[in-house]
């Protein structure tokens, strides 16, 4: 998840929960096994984080056949008091994971 050769050590600004939420916002149809290498966590850790995010209302799982599609609730509020009242949607926009409130990506009709 972090690059030790960067100045400042091996920590990253986002937590595992943040990385997983951003990746799901980028790709709502991603499987746990697809998310794991991107965020640098084990599949078991990603499963636990997804369960946490779902329980807290940050995302919803929908089963379509054998696949699971995630919908991120962009109106969810940050949990830390330092960000009290701020929604996660603008952060996802900033990180290029804006997506939409629906699970399916928008199609350009042109």
Overall description:
- With 110 residues, this protein is an alpha+beta fold.
- The chain has one domain (16-94): Arc Repressor Mutant, subunit A (Orthogonal Bundle).
- The protein is 35% helix and 11% strand.
- It has a two-stranded antiparallel sheet.
- Strand 1 and strand 2 form a beta hairpin.
- Helix 1 crosses helix 3 and helix 2 crosses helix 3.
- It is globular.
Features:
110 residues, alpha+beta, Arc Repressor Mutant, subunit A, two-stranded antiparallel sheet, 4 helices, 35% helix, 11% strand, globular, disordered C terminus
SSE arrangement:
Blueprint (H helix, E strand, L loop, with lengths): L15 H11 L5 H8 L3 H13 L3 E6 L2 E6 L16 H6 L16
Helix pairs in contact: 1-2, 1-3, 2-3
**How much is the average pLDDT?**
85
CATH architecture: Orthogonal Bundle
The computed structural class is alpha+beta
Q: Say which CATH homologous superfamily is assigned.
A: Winged helix-like DNA-binding domain superfamily/Winged helix DNA-binding domain
Any idea how many domains? 1
Kindly state the number of beta strands: 2
Strand order of the largest sheet: 1-2
Based on CA atoms alone, the radius of gyration comes out at: 15 Å
Shape: globular
Give a quick rundown of the structure.
This protein has about 110 residues and is α+β, with helices and mostly antiparallel strands.
